[in-house]
Amino acid sequence: MLAQTVRFLTAPFRLIPWYVWLVTGLVLAWLGRNILLIIATIIAFHPIPVPPIFQGEPETIAEARAQDLRHFHHVRRNERSMDDAMKARFDAAVEALETEAADLTDAEFQLALARIQAIIDNGHSNGSATRMVASFPRLPIRTTWMDGELRVMRALPEQQALLGAELTHIGGVPAAEAMMRFRDAFGGIDASFVTYAPLFLDTPDYLAAVGISDTTLRLRFDDGRVEEVSLSPVEPVEGANRYYSGDLILPNWRETDDWLSVRPAADPLYLQHAARGYWFEAVPEMDAVYLNLARNYDDESGENLADFVTRAGDEIAAMAPTVIIVDQRLNGGGDLTITEPLMVRLGDIVGPEGRIYMLTSGNTFSAGIVNLAMAKEAAPGQTRLVGEPIGDRLQFWAEGWWFSLPNSGFRARYSTGFYDLQNGCEGLFICPWGSLHIFPVIVDDLDIDIPAPMNWDAYIAGRDPAMEAILALESG
Fold first, then answer.
1. Partners of 355 in the beta sheet?
2. Could you tell me the pTM of the whole model?
3. Coil, helix or strand for 162?
């Protein structure tokens, strides 16, 4: 009986050749290793901060600020881009803030936290500007930085007459100077900073925090009029949408339904499906296809991004264009792995004599930047960047985690994974899974080849300087 049992159990080893077992064992070992590696990578690159336990409800402002600063140390503990000198500066700044925190206004305290985060000098590791202003009363207008000007792009109905005006001064301070008073609260480069900074210019508490207590606005209108107006701030509305200032060129994006938007005289191509996160259509006059990729995550159209990438690649290839225009001027990032199959395929679609134009701005960030690099690496001689400088460097830290401090609500962030788009990334727990193991991307640069900033005159007329520049090249 025992012999029969042994013979039955060992039958697979006698019937199946040893080399099949060897290959099977190696495959299982490889799968097991990679599954464990993936789990370890997720833990390594997304450590979740835990609030200090047993701290209780604060009874004073001093206690509340002290609790927030204890929780804020998660940035210092988990941010991987910091060298020893940076850590020393960070710790010294936190220690200095601890001594004065109780005497600061809410806006001064949050701005001080943002300035400490800015020591990291990494675009992904900043505090959340939209969260910083969300709980404060704000003026009933919203402005956007547009090629050197601050333009009023949104207003509540009572201030409709101010739409389109240029904001030149706040409390007698030139608007550009007022904006730069917040520069030390943002790490990263200027191209990204100017897409966020206008949020603070309509928030009196933050203006006061940088020494501007008078919020009288001087506005210049297109007909030459100059007016000074004093506006009363409006309390925040619970559940209102939060947008970066750079998003406001999309007229349909509003905080709440009662906000009014500047409407251009016509809808250029990039505005024709503004509610969609990704779409494409033919541009017959250039034998081109225009692909709008405004995000790297699923929109609300019902078609997820992965399915769109597959469909777009096949349908655009069937159209056989000689030119592909990829508009990422509003792409702030997401999952870079989803769009990789399409980005690396663009050069093959247009063929060796075809052209790829990538439209960029300061809003082009994170996965949006990696998309550019993937396309350029795959077809370097065919790819040109058109528009305005991108929103980050080619070496940056990302991944990581957002978390809110328990009392002030300040939205902090740390970054844990390194991307180097010029030299490649090395190090198992330095480079996130995508940049190291799946498709390391290396390009010489992502400089603008054809400058074409969006300016006010073009915007209000319904023109697109970037598309005009491409059309001039293609027809010339």
1. 323
2. 0.89
3. helix
CA distance 119 to 92: 11
CA separation for the pair 35, 16 (Å, rounded)? 27
| Sign of the alpha-carbon dihedral angle for 57, 59, 65, 70 | negative
Name the region of 317 (left: φ>0; alpha: ψ -120 to 50; beta: rest). alpha
Which pLDDT score is estimated for 436?
A: 54
In 301-366, alpha helices (H): 305-319, 336-343, 346-350
In contact, 390 and 364? CB cutoff 8 Å: yes
CA angle 106, 111, 112 (to 5 degrees): 100
Rounded Cα distance between 416 and 120, Å, is: 12
Up-side HSE of residue 470: CA atoms within 13 Å toward CB? 27
pLDDT in tens, 389-448: 999 999 999 988 899 999 999 999 999 889 999 998 877 667 876 555 556 799 999 999
Q: Using CA of residue 107, residue 109, residue 111, residue 117, what is the dihedral sign? A: negative
Q: Cα(359)–Cα(294) distance, rounded to whole angstroms? A: 11
User: Around 254, how many Cα atoms within 13 Å sit in the side-chain half-sphere?
Assistant: 16
